[in-house]
């Protein structure tokens, strides 16, 4: 049975509409053809003390790793970044001997406050949203993972309830259908990113 690990990271989940709705849609899947594990990082680590070994064990069980978080300042919320620093360790996730994530898929599911038209050269964000994806793509590549095209909802503050319910259902349907996604056949092979042992000298 394919295993899916969903890492939810929202600093104020109780006030969230989109992230909370998506998380609840994943939790509501229950027993299905796909096994889903949902982990709310802010509830799990209110003190920001990440248990790296526990998180790595959860990652090893997964075939698909989902990062579910709002886009904050063109990237991930602070606890998500700390989780990444701790869990994706040198010698475990990447670098010499760091092959524990190879062959897995990474899927970003995110939302933005600004509308889609704000992510254009003539919008106030100046770039198309894809311009902010290279750090995610390269993180996946460095670990031998395949970066699945993200699911993005723009204009999260303005979305009405019907559209939000439709988006949450889409998310649940995609999880239920995994790994029978036609686009997976078109994904290029993960590029080789060999990191030498001396790339991580102490005192940097």
Could you characterize what this model shows?
The chain is of the alpha/beta class. It has one domain (3-199): Rossmann fold, CATH 3.40.50.360. The protein is built from 6 helices and 5 strands, in the order βαβααβαβαβα. It has a 5-stranded parallel β-sheet, sandwiched between helices. Helix 4 (78-87) links the parallel strand 3 and strand 4. The longest helix is centred in the C-terminal third of the chain and has 17 residues, at 161-177. The termini are far apart. 27% of the residues are buried. The mean pLDDT is 93.
Summary, kept brief:
Helices cover 29% and strands 17% of the residues. It is an alpha/beta fold. A five-stranded parallel sheet has the order 2-1-3-4-5, sandwiched between helices.
Features:
globular, 204 residues, five-stranded parallel β-sheet
